[in-house]
Amino acid sequence: MGIIVQKFGGTSVADSQKIHNVANAVIKEKENGNDVVVVVSAMGHTTDYLIKLAKEVTLTPNSREMDMLLSTGEQVSIALLAMAIQAHGYKAVSMNGQQVGIITESIHSKARIVDIKTDKLQKNLKEGNIIVVAGFQGVTPEGEITTLGRGGSDTSAVAIAAALKADRCDIYTDVEGVYATDPRIVPNIQKTDVISYEEMLELARVGANVLHPRSVETAKQFGVPLRVRSSFKLDNMGTLI
Ligand code: ADP
Ligand code: ASP
Ligand code: MG
Fold first, then answer.
1. How high is the pLDDT of residue 1?
2. Which of 15, 25, 76, 174 has the greatest number of beta carbons closer than 10 A?
3. CA distance 104 to 138
């Protein structure tokens, strides 16, 4: 019995069937006796689509309005996943970055998280809820919506795990773990079972987008046990960082 933070990326929540699969993975952790906080990204290529839409309106979109626009993607996912979990007969509540209190710097499009309030998260967990949190977004002390940079939902998950002193943070994605290089470009390479924070940081910084570099920095700083694993092969333990 502990606190587990799970994160599911865009491909893992790309359609309604996949959202139900994610609900099953979440419920499995809950059934193991854990308190569960789930962080999700926008569905499929939603963020790319929203960026394209903005560029059709103007080639120089205002950065505040871009954050307002892009943050909507994750908000769709949290509502649908909370509904799916409820449809399976479990208590769930969705929360956006502002509702949680994910406080960031006052910078648009690549803000850093400076603080995460845990009171509302703790209260909801105590009431038996599975909490579904919007990744990639936060709010400034002035109440402005911010985003954390592309791929930033990983960082949302790790930062929440650190704030809650979670037992584990599992990043579920569309590959089975971390590899020496992108397994989609170099097939038939061996998955790494365990990798150090330093080695993972190096991979992330040179563009292995399986983990957002800041998520690895945060995990290292707060000693968060982090795993990258497959959304589609739930019994596979993936890679421990
Ligand atoms: P998500 O939507 O789940 O956040 P991402 O597309 O951001 O997923 O990251 C997963 C992708 O990272 C994989 O599909 C893979 O192609 C790519 N990738 C790049 N380098 C690596 C690596 N070294 N190990 C694993 N995956 C990698
Ligand atoms: N939806 C955002 C993106 O596409 C954040 C994320 O997926 O982590 O970059
Ligand atoms: Mg990603």
1. 77
2. 25
3. 6
Task: Return the structure tokens found at 188.
Answer: 């038939």
Q: Which residues pair with 113 in a beta bridge?
A: 104
For 180-193, write each residue's pLDDT tens digit: 999 999 989 999 99
pLDDT tens string 112-138: 999 999 999 999 999 999 999 999 999
pLDDT digits (tens, 9 = 90+) for 194-219: 999 999 999 999 989 999 999 999 99
From residue 54, alpha-carbon distances to 19, 66, 69, 193, 241 in Å are 27, 8, 8, 41, 37
Closest CA to 40 of 52, 67, 22, 25: 22
Q: How far apart are CA 167 and CA 180, in angstroms?
A: 27
**How does the average pLDDT of the chain come out, rounded?**
97
CA dist., res. 162 & res. 238, Å (int): 21
For residue 44, give both structure tokens: 């499929």
What are the residues facing 225 on neighbouring strands? none
CA of 7 to the centre of ligand 3 (A): 10
Mutate which of 75, 113, 153 for ligand 2? The one with the most ligand atoms within 8 Å of its CB, which is 153
Give the CA distances from residue 205 to residues 15, 70, 132, in Å, rounded to whole numbers and listed in that order: 30, 23, 28
Q: How far is the CA of 65 from the centre of ligand 3 (A)?
A: 22
Q: Can you tell me whether residue 104 is helix, strand or coil?
A: strand
Burial 49-66 (b: 16+ CB within 10 A, else e): ebbeebeeeeeeeeeeeb
